[in-house]
Write a structure and sequence with these properties.
Elements: H1 2-19, H2 44-50, E1 59-60, E2 63-64, H3 72-76
Antiparallel strand pairs: 1-2
């Protein structure tokens, strides 16, 4: 359920950016659910920190930036970002 919620969150951000004239093919969205928390505590304050969307530059005119996508825990659970084209 958390994966669906987080994916819906990032998909809505992509839709908002596209509505503001950002080219869709320049964006990728991946939800990691509870697999990649900033704060692992089980309390409202931590959950608020973990409800986020991160923007990462994965490719420039010079090529891939090498920025890490997701986290080891997500990968271990089969939740992986698409490779940088």
């Amino acid at each position: 359920m958390n994966l669906k919620l987080t994916q819906a969150r990032v998909d809505s951000v992509v839709a908002a950016l596209v509505e503001r004239s950002v080219e869709r093919q320049r964006l990728r969205a991946k939800g990691y659910g509870y697999y990649c928390p900033i704060d692992e505590a089980h309390e409202e304050k931590a959950w608020g920190k973990n409800r986020r969307v991160e923007f990462l530059i994965v490719k420039t005119a010079r090529g891939a930036t090498g920025v890490a996508l997701g986290c080891a825990n997500a990968t271990a659970h089969g939740v992986k970002a698409e490779p940088v084209p």
